[in-house]
Amino acid sequence: MSVNIAIDGPAGAGKSTIAKRLAEQLGFIYVDTGAMYRAMAYYFLTEQIDAADEAKIGAACPGADVTIAYENGEQQVLLNGKNVNGVIRAEEVGNMASVVSAYPAVRAKLVELQRQLAAKSDVIMDGRDIGTCVLPDAQVKIYLTASSATRAKRRFDELTAKGTVCDLAAIERDIIDRDYRDMHRETSPLKQAEDAVLVDSSKMDIDEVVDAIYQIYREAV
Ligand code: DC
Q1: With contact defined as beta carbons under 8 Å apart, do 154 and 35 qualify?
Q2: Is the CB of 9 under 6 A from ligand 1?
Q3: Helix axes of 168-184 and 91-100: crossing angle, nearest 10 degrees
Q4: How far apart are CA 175 and CA 9, in angstroms?
Q5: Which of 12, 117, 193, 201 might form a disulfide with 151, Cβ 3.0–4.6 angstroms?
Q6: For atom 11 of ligand 1, which residue has the closest CA?
Q7: Is the pLDDT assigned to residue 1 strictly greater than 90?
Q8: Structure confidence by residue, pLDDT tens digits, 111-157
Q9: pLDDT per residue as tens digits for the range 73-111
Q10: Does the beta carbon of 174 sit less than 6 angstroms from any atom of ligand 1?
Q11: What is the CA radius of gyration of the chain?
């Protein structure tokens, strides 16, 4: 039976950085489920479908075939056979993903793919509903969070380092809005699973978080 580690938490908590590092350390496959929702969102944006029109989004779902592949250990998301990794990180795509991921038609499609991946390999999967819905039997469940101010500052530093001019207050507002939507939707809202361990990374650096989760894994498996 494969070993599954679920990491859930709000936007910008460091889930992907931590999960990637742990996957490397443990020889597991890293599955970034947010990237799959982003690929669907990118499809709806290019098709110019209104995010608020749930019926239209549902009807368009069969036209978006999302699959994943691995290149040098890095997850690549393919949308209708085309690699979209380079275009799904934009804020616009993230916000669209947060809106359309509330629709059951969008979720149903991706949850199935995520379960198939976890059944055939040892995975570290990150997202919003992995411990609560996608992999309820995961051997290790982590809820990774940090204050919105810390998360906004990390995002601000990341963008500034890339030379992007941005506004810290606007980033924090965006994060708070995104959290609200992800936590208050009806289908699979973001919440800590009852059996998940809470890790608050507000005052921890990456190495400390990786070590903390590694210890939790060692004790559980
Ligand atoms: O982790 P991220 O920022 O790449 O995710 C983008 C959006 O996708 C997020 O705001 C909510 C949605 N999402 C989800 O609903 N369920 C998941 N398992 C992962 C992401």
Answers
A1: no
A2: no
A3: 20
A4: 12
A5: 12
A6: 98
A7: no
A8: 999 999 999 999 999 999 999 999 999 999 999 999 999 999 999 99
A9: 899 999 999 999 999 999 899 999 999 999 999 999 999
A10: no
A11: 17
Fill in the amino acid letter for 118: A
Residue 84, token pair as written in the block: 């979209």
Return the pLDDT at 216.
98
CA of residue 189 to ligand 1 center, whole Å: 10
SS3 150: helix
Of all protein residues, whose CA lies closest to atom 18 belonging to ligand 1?
127
What are φ and ψ of residue 14, in 5° steps? Answer: 100, 15
Q: What one-character-per-residue DSSP string does 106-131 give? A: HHHHHHHHHHHHHHHS-EEEEESSII
**70: amino acid identity, one letter:** Y
Question: What is the sign, positive or negative, of the torsion defined by CA atoms of 47, 83, 153, 15?
Answer: positive
Model confidence pLDDT, tens digit, residues 146-188:
999 999 999 999 899 999 999 999 999 999 999 999 999 999 9
- Find the 153 Cα to ligand 1 centroid distance in Å: 20
Name the band, by pLDDT with cuts 50, 70 and 90, for residue 59: very high
Contacts 24+ apart (CB under 8 A), 84-90: 84/39, 84/42, 85/35, 87/42, 88/35, 88/38, 88/39, 88/41, 88/42, 89/38
Q: CB of 185 closer than 6 A to ligand 1?
A: no
pLDDT (0 to 100) of residue 94: 92
Q: Residue 196 gets which letter from DSSP?
A: P
Q: Taking the complete model, does pTM exceed 0.70, yes or no?
A: yes
